[in-house]
């Protein structure tokens, strides 16, 4: 995609308007997957399930320094918050799979460098810029930008919410606004340059005052091609003092002037009744803001947040008593038994104070509006016929004042593990030679090498979060050591309807590991033991999956394992093939 004036267009010149949702940081989701009831990939799958009425065209993925550097949730991490080794681990183990899943599901993915509560100055107001902060962000994009440069569905949001200095401090003085914006240009232009040295992906730029002041771009835009601007707002604040986003202004031109000049991405907004001073609100806010969001095809949006914990929430906390549970620990230290096998279902928030059902209905209403043409990110095709439309927005919200708190609190990571099943009889060692017409997905013979992230079909493969990192290829087998964590994926990406059986040549350190592995292929996501009659033994043997009987969509599948369900063992995988 590229910018053309104030519009976003695909390579064929079609006008594209993107709408969607935010998720929580993928590492935070994965670490708390049993408390949340889903891992990050399962969240993406749920939010892109058109058969269940979900139609986002874009998902914003916050990447938090606090999580990259493994600080306590809710803390403002120091600068720098992480080193390059920690960043590489985060990308390999958590972000790569989410970016790839968005591609598979046909949605655009915003990689959002989610820092906030920062200080732009090193030595107080009007002093020199904080070069440590500059270096941290520059290092992030120096690693991330080239990593996804070939992924046309990826957008880069340079910096979530620059908090200081605040452009609201003297909203009546145009010169103050110009001075603050100049400081922001000096601070952030090097990050834009770093991205552009590596990649042509669309860039999204925030603004001072918690990204509430995009109108600074009307004074001077950042230097570079294909740059759009972002805007955040919640019921408890408004960049205008006029109760009207259209006229929101600190320099006389307002937010309306921004989207008349450049694409505007509203990458955060939301409301939750009883949410407090900043995010607390009802559909009165949502309906009025919906009207603003659809003023122009130059406005794109992602609601915050498609999560049961990060507030304002779009989902109730699964199996929790919301009235009695704290934000930090929705289960009071006890993981519901129903969540021991992922995924658990989430319920949308509803009613005047819940935004979940509103956002979902808006996405359905505009599911065919601003869709890119062929050859770009293509949304899922299993789209049911819509029924009711959302209400037409009418009322305007009250004038808010201060900036919102950015949600940070997380539930405690559960400690109780599900029981590890007792291994059963080992399967007989196979004696038959595989059929001559079998399709070998990967035989782990080092050609191509596992580290190259390509299987024998030439498709992407990878793994992460294992005790041995991304797995080790040795002696003709891929070794995966897991301890209640890890994911593996190998793409096929072609129609394999002529094949009926998926075959793994595999052994386990304990035996019986099929009851600890979540199997994911062609829309079927369940424990491996539910789709095979075979058992993993301690010596190499076959585990066969009847794809047709399991209901697997064989039109363009990938094979994925997830090990977050509990248990500790080692698998050796010597071959995956289709027969």
Q: What is the topological layout?
A:
Blueprint: E1 2-4, E2 7-9, E3 15-16, E4 19-22, H1 26-31, H2 33-36, H3 40-47, E5 58-63, H4 65-68, H5 84-104, E6 108-113, H6 131-147, E7 154-157, H7 174-198, E8 203-205, H8 208-211, E9 227-233, H9 254-261, E10 264-269, H10 283-293, E11 299-303, E12 315-316, E13 347-348, H11 356-365, E14 439-442, E15 461-464, E16 472-474, E17 477-483, E18 487-491, E19 501-508, E20 518-521, E21 524-527, E22 541-546, H12 547-550, E23 558-562, E24 568-578
Parallel strand pairs: 4-5, 4-11, 5-6, 6-7, 7-8, 8-9, 9-10, 10-11
Antiparallel strand pairs: 1-2, 2-3, 12-13, 14-24, 15-18, 16-17, 17-24, 18-23, 19-22, 19-24, 20-21, 20-23
Biased composition (Low complexity): 378-415
Protein name: Fibronectin type III domain protein
Region (Disordered): 367-445
Report on the structure:
Residues 367-445 are annotated as: Disordered. It holds the Pfam family Cellulase. Residues 45-307 form the Glycoside hydrolase family domain. With 579 residues, this protein is α/β, with parallel strands linked by helices. The chain has two domains: 2-366, Alpha-Beta Barrel (TIM Barrel), CATH 3.20.20; 439-578, Jelly Rolls (Sandwich), CATH 2.60.120.260. It is built from twelve helices and 24 strands. It has helices at 26-31, 33-36, 40-47, 65-68, 84-104, 131-147, 174-198, 208-211, 254-261, 283-293, 356-365, 547-550; strands spanning 2-4, 7-9, 15-16, 19-22, 58-63, 108-113, 154-157, 203-205, 227-233, 264-269, 299-303, 315-316, 347-348, 439-442, 461-464, 472-474, 477-483, 487-491, 501-508, 518-521, 524-527, 541-546, 558-562, 568-578. α6 (131-147) links the parallel β6 and β7 (154-157). α3 (40-47) runs parallel beside α5, α5 (84-104) packs across α6 (131-147) and α6 (131-147) crosses α7. The longest helix is centred in the first third of the chain and has 25 residues, at 174-198. The two termini are 40 Å apart. The model is unreliable at 239-244, 248-252, 319-336 and 380-432 (pLDDT under 50).
